[in-house]
Amino acid sequence: MYETPLNPIVSGLAKTLTTRLDALVTALADVIVGEIENYAAEEVKLDDLKTHLRHNISGMLAHLTDGGPLDLSGPVETGQLRALQGVPLPEVLRAYRLGYTCVWDQLLAEASRVGADAQAALLESATRIWEMSDSHATAVTTAYRDAVAERLVETDRRRSALVAALVDGPPSGSDTVWEIARMLGFPHQGTFLLVVAETVTSGDPPMPGLDAKFRAVDVGSAWRAQPGFELGVLSCPRRRSVEPVLDAVRAAATGRVGVSPVYDRLDQTSRALRYAHVALESLPPGAAAVRQLDDTPLTELVMNNLETTQRAVHRILGGVLSLPDDDRTTLLATARAWLEAHGSAADAGRALYCHANTVRYRMHRLEEFLRGPLDDPKIIAELSMALDALGTFPTMLELRHVPHGG
Predict the structure, then answer these.
(1) Which regions of the chain carry the CATH code 1.10.490?
(2) Which of 114, 284, 241, 259 shows the shortest CA–CA distance to 197?
(3) Is residue 76 a contact partner of residue 96, using CB atoms and an 8 Å limit?
């Protein structure tokens, strides 16, 4: 590692300090505990601190004594352990700086006692000593970051398994749900959303930067990756609108994203997943869009039997759905406005920015495609159901040739 041999005088100084290693370790431990809050708060026990100080300092002095390879096992072990203990890396590096300063001060004091030649020899070796400091700092930093990365992977795997337990459930027994909530850091009862995000590019997150956006609106999340998409359970602030949460999802979406209705218990996650999946699938392929389904009886009915609903919609509106796009869109929009206006052509016209007579003309034209007149409550009910189903599942518009039988 070093081309220049150690000065024998410096080796002698280091050997002398080795004989006072216990006193040196005790003094340095007192300095670190006195100056660094994380160590003073006993996040690192004093005996543990002294053990690692002894390992590190003895390795430093051994290298200065015999010129052999610098032993970096001490900083590696220290970096790994401090990462697991949650001591911030800057504080760990600060402890190392204090350690090297203390050793240097002791070497300098010993050189002063020995004489001018020893002082000169030590100063000539200063660069080498601080290069050792850099090597220790690099080793402890690398070990610390590797340990943090490994811990994050383990945490992600554990949280992914917990999400799987929720969505594959319901888990057996309320105690299981309470335990999952505790481990995720979620309340058992709260304000939850289930998100399914389509993976656009393999290996890339479907919603980059979402974590930072969630922190800004105080949202906790846990995710599970599956082929083609990722799903996440979101814990939102209680008694607040979820619209800021949805805005964050919209801002980060790179592909189709389905969102469940709000639910208040984690044991409802499996049901929420069905809503989120259907919401995603109702978006056109290739879109970068977010859709949330409402928890309505019609939505539940359609989700439970989508094929039957498709047949019913096409029996009611089949003729309209076969029209050219512009005609179809105009008639369906007019029908929705007319129903929302409770059958008032004037009110519907104001909503559509057209004359009431135009609304009447379009509704008469629509009536020709229905199974009866619009003064029949049964026909009104059928039309309302079909329009609601199309609004909830717009992809039904693409299925123009569903058989009318059945």
Answers:
(1) 8-150
(2) 259
(3) no
Measured CA to CA, the distance from residue 280 to residue 198 in angstroms comes to: 8
For residue 353 the two structure tokens come to 């920015």
Checking if the pLDDT of 364 tops 90, the result is yes
Which CATH fold topology does 190-293 show? Alpha-Beta Plaits (3.30.70)
- Classified as helix, coil or strand, 374 is coil
Provide CB contacts within 8 A for 183, sequence distance 6+.
158, 159, 162
The architecture of the domain spanning 8-150 is Orthogonal Bundle (1.10)
| pLDDT above 70 for 277 | yes
Pairing of strands 263-265, 189-198: antiparallel
C-alpha 13/C-alpha 16 separation (Å) is 5
Q: In degrees rounded to 5, what are phi and psi of residue 382?
A: -65, -45
Ramachandran region, residue 125 (left: φ > 0; alpha: ψ -120 to 50; beta: rest): alpha
Domain 303-398 has CATH 1.10.10.2840: yes
192, 233 in Cβ contact below 8 A? yes
Give me the pLDDT at residue 401, please: 44
Mean of the per-residue pLDDT values for the chain? 86
pTM: 0.56
CA distance 304 to 188: 27
Tokens (6 digits) for 327: 């005609």
DSSP 176-212: HHHHHHHHHT--SEEEEEEEEEE-SSTTS-SSTTHHH
